[in-house]
Every structure is written in structure tokens, then in C-alpha cells.
Write a structure and sequence with these properties.
Blueprint: H1 2-30, H2 37-47, H3 52-77, H4 84-122, H5 125-131, H6 136-173, H7 179-189, H8 192-218, H9 224-253
Amino acid sequence: MIEAIGRNVIFSWEWLKDFLLLWVNAFANAITPPFRKKDILAQLYFVANQSLPIVALCVSFAAIVTIIEASFHMKLVVKDDSLVPGFAALLILRELGAVLAALLVTSRVGAGLAAEVGSMKITEQIDALKALGIDPVRFLVVPRLIASILGVMVLTIFSNFVCILGAMLVSIFSLGFTAGAFLSAMNQFVEFKDLLFAMIKGACFGAVIPIVSCHYGFRCEAGAEGVGRATTNSVVASSILIIILDFILAWIFSHFY
């Protein structure tokens, strides 16, 4: 039993050390030239443009559920739902838009990155890059890191816009609000810094996804089972880190409201 505990401690320490080293190395290379613009643009297209449909679909339904549930419970408790647009817009901008977009990108993009890098690992393509004197972190991780940061920021803005639009349409056609009343109520609660903080959250979430995915890809074990395990672990770890990071950022931003 003691031996098993010791092995787990050593494994956890090695995992954490490799993860932190990858993080530092990736960010150091991301801010130093040369920048592989073509690869960054290709990854940005994969992260942002190809994720737009699923993000739009999912956040639309999330906004509908949010506004309907908020109205129902406000009528139930205080017999008045006039403040629902403001509360819903605040929840969307501060939490829903950024977190939902990041989690959806994690399930789509993060899984793909882990599988791609893991497949390269077990087929010795990463060893071939090292033999040619090419840094795998600069070649594989950095373009995906930059693209993911920018892409999730864009998707955060997009998801916030779609969420608010969906909430406004439901308010107009189902809850009896006018567009002017919705926007007026929203204006009482929402400030520009809410959108700014949401963008910062999106950038931080976007940085988590490729680092975690590539980390698990680099540590992928041989065989199809190894690739599947790396992919699953990367999505789970990224989702957990995004939720924890959201709590930390929300606590920090609360000092500026």
C-alpha cells in the first residue's frame, strides 16, 4: 500500500512538473519570433470558424432556459419579473457566455488536439521532429495556443451576443416585454467592463485548452486505447481547470464591480 501511494505521488509530481514546463515553454515561444502565421490562421479557422454553429446552437437554448426560469421564479417569489432582462443579461455576460463557449470548444477542439498529438506521439512523428532539430512545442503547441486564445475570445463575444439576442426574443414573444423595455432593463445592470472581463475570461480559458490537450498528447501511451485515454483525460482535465479558473477570475473581478 505504501509503495502504491509512493508511486502515485511520484507520478503526480512528474505530471505536474511536465505540465508546468510545457506551459512556460509554450508561452515563452509564443511571444518570441518567428511566428508561423499560416499555421496560426489555419488553427484559428479550426478553433473559431468551425465552432461557430455548435456554439450558436447551444448558447441559444441556454439563453432561452435562463430567461424563462428566471421569469418563472421571480413571479413565484416576488410576483414581478420586470428585472428579469437585467439579471439574465448580467448572468450571460459575466458567466454563461464565456464558460459555455469554452466548454464547447474543449469538447470539440481539445479532444481533436489531444488525439492529433497523441497519434503523432505513438507513430514517432514527434521523435522525428526532434531528430530534425525542430522543437515540438514551437511547431505544434504555439500555433494552437495563439489560435485558441484569439478564437475563444471571439467565440465569447459571439456567444454573449447570441445569448442576449435569444433572451430578448424570448422576452418579446413569450414574456410580454418590448425590445425597448428589455434593453432599458439590461442597461441598468450591464456595463462595458462586464464584456471586457468576459473577454479576459475567454482568453484565459482559451490558453488552458491547447496546453492541457497537447500535454496529454505528448504523454500518450501506445495503441488506440492510449489515444482514447489521452483524449478523454484531456477533455476532463480542461473542463475542470476551466471551472476552477472561472471561480478564481470571478473572485478577482468581483473587486472591480
